[in-house]
Amino acid sequence: MTGGSGIAGVERFESPGKGRGLRVTRAFKLGELLFCSQAYSYVLSVKERGSYCECCLTRKEHLARCGKCKKAFYCNVKCQKSDWAMHKLECSAITAFGENWCPSEMSRLVARILAKKVGQAQCTSEVLFVTHYMEDVDNEKREMNEADVAGLHRYCSKNLDLPDHKDLLTLFSQVACNGFTIEDDELSHMGTAVYPDVALINHSCLPSVIVTYNGTSAEIRAVKDMKPGDEVLISYIDLLYPTDDRNNRLRESYYFTCDCKECKSKSKDKVKIKVRKQSDPIEPDVINNMVRYARKTIREFRQDNTPLLEMCEQSLDEMGAVFDDSNVYMLHMMYQAMGVCLYMQDADGAIRYGEKILKPYCQLYPPYSLNVSSMYLKLGRLYMALEMYSKGVSALKKALAIMEVAHGKDHLYVKELRKEMTQK
Ligand SMILES: [Zn+2]
Ligand SMILES: [Zn+2]
Ligand SMILES: [Zn+2]
């Protein structure tokens, strides 16, 4: 495998129709760790500064900050020193630009990849990235890449010799395809990283493994029993949505179409687009129009990422005339609405939405899903905060059962959770 010693029980192979892939050479049981992968390069999100160490990505209180820019936080001097080669790309620019320092996370990550490359003989892209077809990069994406390149030059290129424009554009496309979003136990975004070994894993809507993050490492665990020869498969996308939506997403971001069993049978599509029960059945045209409306609204919300509660409620009203409450587009809007409530510290509102989301989530997602565990976790923590302890503990228990498989029994998040359940 890339970067060294090889991983026992896992090997590279040519996956039919998919190119390079990974498969297991021995049996793995549910919850068993297949392998860990150290990030080649990573970056902590700006909004998480102060909550995590920039160097080891440990969640901790009372971190010490960089004396120069006062914006980077560390466990101790040791972490600060080992991060300096990366932080020095930004430190003086952070001070110089002040409030106006605003590179994209992608620009920051690419700067780090380039800084690491210095002195290494091999071409970064060959070592790091699985190649995808780049020809259908659309205008919107091209503009984003151009903006990222400009941001890299402006905000993150201190002490860095940048390659020419065309090579940079290629690198940005590759990182967009092969990068991983690091998320915490509640699936809140905390950073972006490149894991060359994990990038070899192909996609399926019926994944055999889950990726979780532990400090700067990614850990890959089986979410079903695997036998020798089984391909290691993760999901690249949110599996809540119907087959057409999933494949649109895959084509947009990864330039391929999935042909897994679920994509062929579309067995869950009907429940996913469930319509309201009414005495007169709803016309197919009306349903199709509403699906179109829902997709459009979701796309618009994705562009400006803090919707107002009224906007969520308005689209819920509109769609609710046709769609059942368990319809995935309704769930999407309720999830957004719950996020807004949490942001506004409206615990009752958040609980109201969370309770509606949970049951359909359990039916529509695979048995071991981080989307489900994080929803139990959020709800459980809200109940506990409102002193509804028995409801709280029972929700947290459900989260724990999934996390013990996905994160492993010794993960910091699992330990923290066990502690929370005993403290009232
Ligand atoms: Zn600094
Ligand atoms: Zn640290
Ligand atoms: Zn599929």
From TrEMBL:
**One of this protein's Pfam families, by short name?**
zf-MYND
PROSITE patterns found in the cross-reference section: SET, TPR, ZF_MYND_1, ZF_MYND_2
- Biological process GO terms, please? heart contraction; heart development; methylation
Which organism was this protein described from?
Answer: Labrus bergylta (ballan wrasse)
Looking at its record, which EC class is this enzyme? transferase
Where does the record place the MYND-type domain? 53-91
InterPro entries attached to this UniProt entry: H3K4_H4K5_MeTrfase, SET_dom, SET_dom_sf, TPR-like_helical_dom_sf, TPR_rpt, Znf_MYND
According to the UniProt entry, what is the EC number of this protein?
2.1.1.354
UniProt name for this protein: [histone H3]-lysine(4) N-trimethyltransferase
Mention one GO molecular function: zinc ion binding
Answer yes or no on keyword S-adenosyl-L-methionine.
yes
Q: Which reaction does it catalyse?
A: L-lysyl(4)-[histone H3] + 3 S-adenosyl-L-methionine = N(6),N(6),N(6)-trimethyl-L-lysyl(4)-[histone H3] + 3 S-adenosyl-L-homocysteine + 3 H(+)
